[in-house]
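Appendix B, Record 12. Input sequence as logged:
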Amino acid sequence: MKAKGLSRKLFGCSLVLLLAVSLVAAACPAPVAPVAPAPEPEPEVFEWRMQAFISAGHPLVVNSQDFFVDTVRELSGGRLIIHSHGAGEIVGAMETRDAVTKGIIEMGKWWSTFDMGVGPAAAILGTMPFGTRHEDYLAWYLRGGGKELMAEFYDPLNVKVVAVFVEAAGPALHMREPWGTLEELKGRKMRAVGLQAAIFARLGIGVVPMPGGEIYAAMEVGILDGAEWAGPILNKALGFHEPGPYMLSPGWHEPALFTLLIVNKDAWAKLPDDLKHIMEVAALATFAHYEQFTRHDNALALRDMLAAGAQIIRLSDEDLATLRATAMEVMEEHAAKSDLFRRVMESQLRYSEFMNPMREFDDF
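Logged structural output:
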Protein backbone atom coordinates (compact mmCIF):
# COMPACT_ATOMS: atom_id res chain seq x y z
CA MET A 1 0.00 0.00 0.00
CA LYS A 2 2.80 2.33 0.83
CA ALA A 3 4.42 1.58 -2.52
CA LYS A 4 1.24 2.39 -4.38
CA GLY A 5 0.87 5.68 -2.53
CA LEU A 6 4.43 6.66 -3.34
CA SER A 7 3.85 5.86 -7.01
CA ARG A 8 0.78 8.04 -7.09
CA LYS A 9 2.71 10.91 -5.49
CA LEU A 10 5.55 10.58 -7.98
CA PHE A 11 3.13 10.43 -10.89
CA GLY A 12 1.35 13.55 -9.64
CA CYS A 13 4.62 15.41 -9.26
CA SER A 14 5.61 14.41 -12.78
CA LEU A 15 2.36 15.74 -14.17
CA VAL A 16 2.84 19.05 -12.33
CA LEU A 17 6.42 19.36 -13.58
CA LEU A 18 5.43 18.52 -17.14
CA LEU A 19 2.62 21.08 -17.02
CA ALA A 20 5.01 23.76 -15.71
CA VAL A 21 7.53 23.05 -18.43
CA SER A 22 4.75 23.19 -21.06
CA LEU A 23 3.56 26.54 -19.73
CA VAL A 24 7.09 27.98 -19.78
CA ALA A 25 7.69 26.67 -23.28
CA ALA A 26 4.41 28.16 -24.44
CA ALA A 27 5.36 31.51 -22.99
CA CYS A 28 8.71 31.60 -24.88
CA PRO A 29 8.70 32.50 -28.58
CA ALA A 30 9.92 29.97 -31.04
CA PRO A 31 13.57 30.53 -32.14
CA VAL A 32 13.84 32.77 -35.22
CA ALA A 33 16.20 31.83 -38.06
CA PRO A 34 19.05 34.43 -38.45
CA VAL A 35 18.50 36.95 -41.24
CA ALA A 36 21.43 37.31 -43.69
CA PRO A 37 22.83 40.87 -43.78
CA ALA A 38 22.00 42.93 -46.82
CA PRO A 39 24.79 42.82 -49.43
CA GLU A 40 27.10 45.84 -49.52
CA PRO A 41 26.43 48.07 -52.53
CA GLU A 42 29.06 47.87 -55.26
CA PRO A 43 31.45 50.84 -55.01
CA GLU A 44 31.23 53.34 -57.84
CA VAL A 45 34.03 52.97 -60.39
CA PHE A 46 35.34 56.09 -62.12
CA GLU A 47 36.98 55.78 -65.55
CA TRP A 48 39.00 58.67 -66.88
CA ARG A 49 41.21 59.40 -69.87
CA MET A 50 44.54 61.16 -69.72
CA GLN A 51 46.79 62.37 -72.54
CA ALA A 52 50.41 63.54 -72.52
CA PHE A 53 51.98 66.10 -74.83
CA ILE A 54 54.72 63.50 -75.49
CA SER A 55 54.33 60.24 -77.41
CA ALA A 56 53.12 57.12 -75.61
CA GLY A 57 55.88 54.75 -74.58
CA HIS A 58 58.48 57.48 -74.17
CA PRO A 59 60.40 57.02 -70.88
CA LEU A 60 59.26 60.47 -69.68
CA VAL A 61 55.64 59.32 -70.05
CA VAL A 62 56.17 55.80 -68.73
CA ASN A 63 57.87 57.06 -65.58
CA SER A 64 55.44 59.87 -64.80
CA GLN A 65 51.98 59.51 -66.31
CA ASP A 66 51.93 55.72 -66.59
CA PHE A 67 53.45 55.23 -63.13
CA PHE A 68 50.84 57.61 -61.69
CA VAL A 69 47.81 55.88 -63.22
CA ASP A 70 49.10 52.46 -62.12
CA THR A 71 49.60 53.73 -58.57
CA VAL A 72 46.11 55.26 -58.45
CA ARG A 73 44.54 52.03 -59.71
CA GLU A 74 46.39 50.01 -57.07
CA LEU A 75 45.70 52.33 -54.14
CA SER A 76 42.03 52.74 -55.05
CA GLY A 77 41.42 49.01 -55.44
CA GLY A 78 40.29 49.61 -59.01
CA ARG A 79 37.74 52.29 -58.11
CA LEU A 80 39.56 54.93 -60.18
CA ILE A 81 40.87 53.77 -63.53
CA ILE A 82 42.73 56.32 -65.64
CA HIS A 83 43.50 55.28 -69.22
CA SER A 84 46.88 56.65 -70.34
CA HIS A 85 47.27 58.06 -73.87
CA GLY A 86 50.19 59.63 -75.71
CA ALA A 87 50.28 62.81 -77.74
CA GLY A 88 47.79 62.90 -80.62
CA GLU A 89 45.83 59.80 -79.61
CA ILE A 90 42.76 61.83 -78.57
CA VAL A 91 43.59 65.44 -79.46
CA GLY A 92 46.67 67.17 -80.84
CA ALA A 93 49.63 67.42 -78.48
CA MET A 94 49.29 71.20 -78.12
CA GLU A 95 45.53 70.87 -77.55
CA THR A 96 45.96 68.76 -74.41
CA ARG A 97 45.32 71.48 -71.83
CA ASP A 98 42.37 72.89 -73.76
CA ALA A 99 40.86 69.40 -73.89
CA VAL A 100 41.17 69.15 -70.10
CA THR A 101 39.57 72.57 -69.67
CA LYS A 102 36.60 71.52 -71.82
CA GLY A 103 36.24 68.07 -70.24
CA ILE A 104 37.04 66.22 -73.47
CA ILE A 105 39.58 64.37 -71.33
CA GLU A 106 39.72 64.36 -67.56
CA MET A 107 43.50 64.62 -67.22
CA GLY A 108 46.64 65.62 -69.07
CA LYS A 109 50.43 65.81 -68.73
CA TRP A 110 51.39 69.39 -69.61
CA TRP A 111 54.00 72.14 -69.53
CA SER A 112 52.67 75.54 -68.49
CA THR A 113 54.92 77.46 -70.92
CA PHE A 114 52.68 76.17 -73.71
CA ASP A 115 49.97 78.41 -72.20
CA MET A 116 51.82 81.69 -72.82
CA GLY A 117 48.98 82.66 -75.15
CA VAL A 118 46.70 82.71 -72.11
CA GLY A 119 49.04 84.87 -70.04
CA PRO A 120 52.78 85.58 -69.74
CA ALA A 121 52.91 84.11 -66.23
CA ALA A 122 52.63 80.67 -67.86
CA ALA A 123 56.24 80.96 -69.01
CA ILE A 124 57.71 81.72 -65.62
CA LEU A 125 55.54 79.11 -63.90
CA GLY A 126 57.10 76.53 -66.22
CA THR A 127 60.68 77.70 -65.79
CA MET A 128 62.55 80.87 -64.92
CA PRO A 129 65.87 81.81 -66.55
CA PHE A 130 68.58 81.98 -63.89
CA GLY A 131 65.87 81.02 -61.40
CA THR A 132 65.41 78.50 -58.64
CA ARG A 133 67.68 75.49 -58.85
CA HIS A 134 66.42 72.02 -59.68
CA GLU A 135 66.79 70.70 -56.12
CA ASP A 136 64.85 73.66 -54.66
CA TYR A 137 62.03 73.92 -57.19
CA LEU A 138 59.63 71.45 -55.59
CA ALA A 139 60.25 73.01 -52.16
CA TRP A 140 59.33 76.42 -53.62
CA TYR A 141 56.18 74.91 -55.11
CA LEU A 142 55.02 73.10 -51.95
CA ARG A 143 56.38 75.39 -49.21
CA GLY A 144 57.28 78.69 -50.84
CA GLY A 145 53.96 79.76 -52.37
CA GLY A 146 54.35 78.24 -55.84
CA LYS A 147 51.31 75.98 -55.54
CA GLU A 148 49.01 78.91 -54.79
CA LEU A 149 50.41 80.95 -57.68
CA MET A 150 49.98 77.99 -60.04
CA ALA A 151 46.37 77.61 -58.92
CA GLU A 152 45.75 81.32 -59.47
CA PHE A 153 46.71 80.88 -63.11
CA TYR A 154 44.87 77.60 -63.78
CA ASP A 155 41.69 77.92 -61.70
CA PRO A 156 40.05 80.26 -64.27
CA LEU A 157 40.83 77.64 -66.94
CA ASN A 158 38.80 75.00 -65.05
CA VAL A 159 42.03 73.10 -64.34
CA LYS A 160 43.48 71.73 -61.10
CA VAL A 161 47.17 70.86 -60.90
CA VAL A 162 47.48 67.61 -58.92
CA ALA A 163 51.16 66.87 -59.48
CA VAL A 164 54.36 68.54 -60.59
CA PHE A 165 57.53 66.89 -61.84
CA VAL A 166 60.83 68.74 -61.79
CA GLU A 167 62.85 68.29 -64.95
CA ALA A 168 66.61 68.79 -64.68
CA ALA A 169 68.44 71.38 -66.74
CA GLY A 170 69.62 70.49 -70.22
CA PRO A 171 71.95 72.18 -72.72
CA ALA A 172 71.11 75.72 -73.72
CA LEU A 173 71.55 74.61 -77.35
CA HIS A 174 72.54 71.71 -79.56
CA MET A 175 74.64 73.38 -82.30
CA ARG A 176 75.96 72.36 -85.70
CA GLU A 177 79.27 74.16 -85.12
CA PRO A 178 81.37 74.79 -81.97
CA TRP A 179 80.19 78.35 -81.36
CA GLY A 180 81.12 79.30 -77.81
CA THR A 181 80.34 83.01 -77.47
CA LEU A 182 77.28 85.22 -77.80
CA GLU A 183 79.09 87.14 -80.53
CA GLU A 184 79.45 83.94 -82.58
CA LEU A 185 75.75 83.17 -82.11
CA LYS A 186 74.55 86.50 -83.48
CA GLY A 187 72.68 86.09 -86.74
CA ARG A 188 72.47 82.28 -86.36
CA LYS A 189 69.09 80.60 -86.58
CA MET A 190 68.13 78.84 -83.34
CA ARG A 191 65.00 77.00 -82.35
CA ALA A 192 63.86 78.39 -78.98
CA VAL A 193 60.60 79.09 -77.15
CA GLY A 194 59.31 81.13 -74.24
CA LEU A 195 61.54 83.55 -72.42
CA GLN A 196 64.69 82.09 -73.98
CA ALA A 197 63.43 83.05 -77.42
CA ALA A 198 62.76 86.63 -76.27
CA ILE A 199 66.22 86.87 -74.69
CA PHE A 200 67.92 85.51 -77.83
CA ALA A 201 66.04 87.97 -80.03
CA ARG A 202 67.10 90.87 -77.78
CA LEU A 203 70.74 89.82 -78.28
CA GLY A 204 70.50 89.54 -82.08
CA ILE A 205 70.30 85.75 -82.22
CA GLY A 206 67.78 84.51 -84.78
CA VAL A 207 64.81 82.59 -83.40
CA VAL A 208 62.84 80.03 -85.42
CA PRO A 209 59.76 78.46 -83.77
CA MET A 210 59.49 74.79 -84.66
CA PRO A 211 57.88 71.59 -83.30
CA GLY A 212 60.26 69.06 -81.81
CA GLY A 213 59.62 66.50 -84.50
CA GLU A 214 60.99 68.82 -87.20
CA ILE A 215 64.21 69.89 -85.46
CA TYR A 216 66.49 67.02 -86.53
CA ALA A 217 65.84 67.43 -90.25
CA ALA A 218 66.02 71.23 -90.02
CA MET A 219 69.45 71.09 -88.38
CA GLU A 220 70.62 68.39 -90.77
CA VAL A 221 70.02 70.55 -93.86
CA GLY A 222 70.95 73.87 -92.27
CA ILE A 223 67.54 75.46 -91.88
CA LEU A 224 68.51 75.64 -88.19
CA ASP A 225 71.99 76.29 -86.84
CA GLY A 226 71.01 74.96 -83.46
CA ALA A 227 68.10 74.14 -81.20
CA GLU A 228 67.01 74.00 -77.60
CA TRP A 229 64.55 71.27 -76.69
CA ALA A 230 64.88 69.52 -73.33
CA GLY A 231 67.23 67.51 -71.13
CA PRO A 232 69.56 64.71 -72.27
CA ILE A 233 66.91 61.95 -72.17
CA LEU A 234 64.61 63.61 -74.69
CA ASN A 235 67.41 65.11 -76.78
CA LYS A 236 69.18 61.78 -77.18
CA ALA A 237 65.90 60.00 -77.99
CA LEU A 238 65.37 62.45 -80.87
CA GLY A 239 68.99 62.18 -81.98
CA PHE A 240 69.82 65.89 -81.73
CA HIS A 241 73.47 65.11 -80.91
CA GLU A 242 73.94 63.83 -84.47
CA PRO A 243 73.28 67.02 -86.50
CA GLY A 244 74.04 69.16 -83.41
CA PRO A 245 76.98 67.53 -81.59
CA TYR A 246 78.07 70.73 -79.79
CA MET A 247 76.10 71.26 -76.57
CA LEU A 248 76.15 74.77 -75.12
CA SER A 249 76.41 74.91 -71.33
CA PRO A 250 75.07 75.78 -68.78
CA GLY A 251 71.29 75.48 -69.08
CA TRP A 252 70.72 79.03 -67.83
CA HIS A 253 67.38 79.31 -69.62
CA GLU A 254 65.74 76.58 -67.51
CA PRO A 255 67.78 75.55 -64.45
CA ALA A 256 64.70 73.54 -63.59
CA LEU A 257 61.24 73.23 -65.10
CA PHE A 258 57.89 71.84 -64.10
CA THR A 259 55.78 69.44 -66.09
CA LEU A 260 52.30 69.05 -64.66
CA LEU A 261 49.53 66.52 -64.21
CA ILE A 262 46.35 68.52 -64.66
CA VAL A 263 42.71 67.58 -63.96
CA ASN A 264 39.41 68.99 -65.16
CA LYS A 265 37.94 70.66 -62.06
CA ASP A 266 34.41 69.40 -62.71
CA ALA A 267 35.67 65.81 -62.86
CA TRP A 268 37.69 66.38 -59.69
CA ALA A 269 34.63 67.70 -57.84
CA LYS A 270 32.75 64.45 -58.56
CA LEU A 271 35.35 62.26 -56.86
CA PRO A 272 34.76 61.20 -53.24
CA ASP A 273 37.27 62.60 -50.76
CA ASP A 274 39.15 59.33 -50.31
CA LEU A 275 39.88 59.09 -54.03
CA LYS A 276 41.07 62.70 -54.08
CA HIS A 277 43.44 61.84 -51.25
CA ILE A 278 44.64 58.75 -53.09
CA MET A 279 45.45 60.87 -56.13
CA GLU A 280 47.46 63.30 -54.01
CA VAL A 281 49.39 60.45 -52.35
CA ALA A 282 50.02 58.87 -55.75
CA ALA A 283 51.30 62.22 -57.02
CA LEU A 284 53.96 62.40 -54.30
CA ALA A 285 54.95 58.77 -54.90
CA THR A 286 55.25 59.47 -58.62
CA PHE A 287 57.39 62.54 -58.01
CA ALA A 288 59.85 60.47 -55.93
CA HIS A 289 59.99 57.80 -58.63
CA TYR A 290 60.35 60.32 -61.45
CA GLU A 291 63.08 62.26 -59.65
CA GLN A 292 65.42 59.28 -59.32
CA PHE A 293 64.61 58.15 -62.87
CA THR A 294 65.43 61.50 -64.49
CA ARG A 295 68.59 62.06 -62.45
CA HIS A 296 69.94 58.63 -63.35
CA ASP A 297 68.79 58.35 -66.96
CA ASN A 298 69.78 61.90 -67.87
CA ALA A 299 73.31 61.02 -66.80
CA LEU A 300 73.16 57.83 -68.88
CA ALA A 301 71.90 59.73 -71.94
CA LEU A 302 74.58 62.39 -71.59
CA ARG A 303 77.27 59.73 -71.23
CA ASP A 304 76.06 58.03 -74.41
CA MET A 305 75.99 61.29 -76.40
CA LEU A 306 79.52 62.17 -75.30
CA ALA A 307 80.70 58.66 -76.19
CA ALA A 308 79.18 59.15 -79.66
CA GLY A 309 81.32 62.26 -80.22
CA ALA A 310 79.24 65.10 -78.77
CA GLN A 311 81.07 67.87 -76.92
CA ILE A 312 80.15 70.34 -74.18
CA ILE A 313 81.07 74.00 -74.74
CA ARG A 314 80.72 76.36 -71.77
CA LEU A 315 79.86 80.02 -72.04
CA SER A 316 82.22 82.49 -70.37
CA ASP A 317 81.29 84.21 -67.12
CA GLU A 318 81.08 87.50 -69.06
CA ASP A 319 78.55 86.07 -71.53
CA LEU A 320 76.53 84.56 -68.67
CA ALA A 321 76.43 87.97 -66.99
CA THR A 322 75.13 89.48 -70.25
CA LEU A 323 72.46 86.80 -70.52
CA ARG A 324 71.42 87.29 -66.89
CA ALA A 325 71.08 91.05 -67.32
CA THR A 326 69.09 90.61 -70.55
CA ALA A 327 66.87 88.01 -68.91
CA MET A 328 66.04 90.44 -66.10
CA GLU A 329 65.23 93.17 -68.66
CA VAL A 330 62.83 90.88 -70.52
CA MET A 331 61.20 89.62 -67.32
CA GLU A 332 60.81 93.11 -65.87
CA GLU A 333 58.97 94.14 -69.04
CA HIS A 334 56.56 91.21 -68.63
CA ALA A 335 56.20 92.01 -64.93
CA ALA A 336 55.17 95.57 -65.76
CA LYS A 337 52.27 94.21 -67.82
CA SER A 338 51.22 91.22 -65.68
CA ASP A 339 50.77 91.34 -61.92
CA LEU A 340 50.80 87.55 -61.69
CA PHE A 341 54.05 87.34 -63.67
CA ARG A 342 55.60 89.89 -61.31
CA ARG A 343 54.50 88.00 -58.19
CA VAL A 344 55.76 84.65 -59.54
CA MET A 345 59.11 86.21 -60.46
CA GLU A 346 59.51 87.91 -57.09
CA SER A 347 58.46 84.75 -55.25
CA GLN A 348 61.07 82.63 -57.03
CA LEU A 349 63.82 85.22 -56.56
CA ARG A 350 63.02 85.49 -52.84
CA TYR A 351 63.04 81.73 -52.44
CA SER A 352 66.33 81.38 -54.29
CA GLU A 353 67.86 84.00 -52.00
CA PHE A 354 66.37 82.21 -48.98
CA MET A 355 68.06 78.95 -50.04
CA ASN A 356 71.44 80.50 -50.92
CA PRO A 357 72.98 80.06 -47.44
CA MET A 358 72.27 76.32 -47.62
CA ARG A 359 74.47 76.11 -50.69
CA GLU A 360 77.46 76.94 -48.52
CA PHE A 361 77.19 73.36 -47.29
CA ASP A 362 76.65 71.55 -50.58
CA ASP A 363 78.69 73.57 -53.11
CA PHE A 364 82.18 72.13 -53.24
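Residues 9-26 have pLDDT under 50 and may be disordered.
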